[in-house]
Amino acid sequence: MANVRHLETTVQRVVTDILRNDVKDDLGFLTVTGVKITNELSYMYVYYSVYGDETQMSKTQEALNRANGYIKNQIAHRVKMRKVPELVFKIDESYEKGKRIDDLIKSIK
After folding, report:
1. Rounded to the nearest 5°, which phi and psi values hold at 103?
2. Where are the domains of the chain?
3. CA-based nearest residue to 16, from 58, 49, 41, 39
4. Among 3.30.230.10, 3.30.300.20, 3.40.50.2300, 3.40.50.1820, what is the CATH number of 2-108?
5. Which of 10, 12, 19, 29 is buried most deeply by CB count within 10 Å?
6. Is 77 within 8 Å of 33 (Cβ atoms)?
7. At what angle do helices 2-21 and 54-78 cross, to 10 degrees?
8. What is the pLDDT of residues 39-91, one digit of tens each?
9. Which residues make Cβ contacts (< 8 Å) with residue 42, sequence separation at least 6?
10. Cα dist. 34→23, 86, 103, 108 in Å?
11. Distance from C-alpha of 31 to C-alpha of 101, rounded to nearest angstrom
12. 8: nearest Cα among 41, 34, 40
């Protein structure tokens, strides 16, 4: 379990570097917020947030989907893994959920 957590941290750092320096597509103002690797090492979920509206979010998702193979290949080169899991990008909605909850609490007062 500790090895998976260490691997998640390493992959998050590597993916952030790849997105910042290697991917030429317009990703907008993107932040990698976390990485979750399944126990059987078959999926690697990269959670991200994007500053902007729905249009910017969908443009970023499309750019990430286009770059998926390249990013996975780069992870394989930079991180010591026997098998590189399937890479899945997911938008991290925790900020929006937290903001909605905060707004609800403020509206009750």
Report:
1. -65, -40
2. 2-108
3. 49
4. 3.30.300.20
5. 19
6. no
7. 110
8. 888 999 999 998 888 888 889 999 999 999 999 999 999 998 878 899 999 99
9. 85, 86
10. 19, 16, 25, 32
11. 22
12. 34
- Six token digits for residue 46: 């990269």
* This prediction's pTM: 0.83
Name the residue with tokens 């969908």.
Answer: 58
CB atoms within 10 A of CB 49: 19
Q: What is the C-alpha separation between 105 and 75, in angstroms, rounded?
A: 42
What amino acid is encoded at 89 in this protein?
F
Tokens in use for 80?
Answer: 């010591």
